[in-house]
Design a protein that fits this description.
Length: 176
């Protein structure tokens, strides 16, 4: 795990300038939301559902990635998410486990671990650099370039995590 202080050191070394705590923490928290689906963090929610009835989804749950039935089999029926994403309803009654992408928890201090995989460290550092450059001028060419690099690095890191591990000719899915 890495901290906001670790990102500060990396970012300052590359842009040769000093970043302030008051800017770093909000910018990291912004990146945690902006790239939430790329971090591939998931959480589950257990539900006993009646067909057609709306149920609250757990706070922080974004996109549904998998639903299983009580016996562990994949749910093959349909489900619907409300327009604001806060509720879910199922076509069939049953007990379900809903796995969703979740946003990482925001950080509050410079020494607090950032709750994403270490492979995102360079991309988040680049994002901090971009925010620094764009702070006073949202058309700063270096800032725009750094933000594009940050996005590419975060997406590449996400792609690496999605590939899983290959052993003896088989694909092993990475689970969190």
């Amino acid at each position: 795990m890495f901290t906001a202080q670790d990102l500060r050191v990396l970012a300052e070394a590359e842009i040769d300038d000093l970043l302030e705590d008051a800017d770093i923490i909000p910018n990291i928290n912004s990146a945690l939301i902006e790239f939430a689906d790329d971090y591939r963090l998931t959480a589950t929610q257990e539900m006993n559902a009646e067909a057609g009835k709306w149920y609250d989804r757990a706070d922080g749950h974004l996109a549904v990635v998998h639903v299983t039935c009580e016996d562990g089999r994949d749910y093959r029926g349909s489900f619907e998410i409300s327009h604001d994403g806060s509720k879910i309803r199922f076509e069939c009654s049953g007990k379900y486990t809903v796995t969703s992408i979740v946003a990482p928890e925001p950080i509050a201090a410079m020494d607090e671990p950032i709750p994403v995989h270490d492979v995102f460290k360079v991309g988040l550092s680049r994002y901090l650099q971009a925010c620094f450059k764009l702070k006073d001028n949202d058309q700063n060419e270096d800032g725009i370039r750094l933000k594009a690099e940050a996005m590419a690095l975060v997406r590449r890191a996400s792609s690496l995590l999605a590939q899983g591990d290959i052993r003896q000719g088989q694909r092993v899915v990475i689970k969190r």
